[in-house]
Structure formats: structure tokens, C-alpha cells
Design a protein that fits this description.
Number of strands: 11
Shape: elongated
Number of helices: 0
Distance between the termini: 40 Å
Length: about 120
């Protein structure tokens, strides 16, 4: 059973910064992908950024140059540094952990943390 606990959301003015953290616990493969997704009211959940266990990153075009994803493998923790925040970044941000099992995949989500950017 994998658990993900997020922290770091909040209210910030446009142009400000926030840092999200997500700590994973449980039985976790050392080869995995951790990521952040977000969902705004009335919208579908969308990819923000992902990072593999060997450090390969992927970003949504809308956040490139403003957000940075990083991780500490020893702590099974992923971070999302968000700079130059815009009102359109307002959403619930979800942490995700994905890895392969002997049969199938383990795909886990955190409970979500609210990020609100005021104009």
C-alpha cells in the first residue's frame, strides 16, 4: 500500500512563489515516476510535471521556465517549486507515483493541496 502526503499549498499573489512537497511511503519500487498534476474547477486533471527516478523531467508547456520539479530518492519525496505564479495556476495540485509491478502497475495519488493565486 502506497501513501502520498502533500504539503505546501496556499494563497499567494500573482508573481509570487510556492513550494509543494510530497512524501511517499509504503512498498515502492526504486524505479518510478513521481509527478504533479492539477485540476481547476470545472476542468479535467492535467499534467504539470513529472520526474523519473533517474532525474529525467517533463513539463507542461504552460509551466516551463516557471516551475521546477525535483526529488530526493532517499526520502521518496518530490518537490514542485513554483515561481512567477499566475491566476490561471489556481487549482488543486495532486502528487502522483507510478511504477511497474510484476503484473501491472501501481498508480497512487495524494489527497491534493489547494493553490490559489490572486490577481
Amino acid at each position: 500500500q502506497v501513501q502520498l502526503v502533500e504539503s505546501g499549498g496556499g494563497l499567494v499573489q500573482a508573481g509570487g512563489s510556492l513550494r509543494l512537497s510530497c512524501a511517499a511511503s509504503g512498498s515502492i519500487s526504486s524505479r518510478n515516476v513521481m509527478g504533479w498534476y492539477r485540476q481547476a474547477p470545472g476542468e479535467q486533471r492535467e499534467l504539470v510535471a513529472t520526474i523519473t527516478s533517474d532525474g529525467t523531467t517533463n513539463y507542461a508547456d504552460s509551466v516551463k521556465g516557471r516551475f521546477t520539479i525535483s526529488r530526493e530518492n532517499a526520502k521518496n519525496t518530490v518537490y514542485l517549486q513554483m515561481n512567477s505564479l499566475k491566476p490561471e495556476d489556481t487549482a488543486v495540485y495532486y502528487c502522483n507515483l507510478l511504477f511497474s509491478l510484476l503484473r501491472g502497475k501501481s498508480n497512487s495519488w495524494g489527497q491534493g493541496t489547494q493553490v490559489t493565486v490572486s490577481s
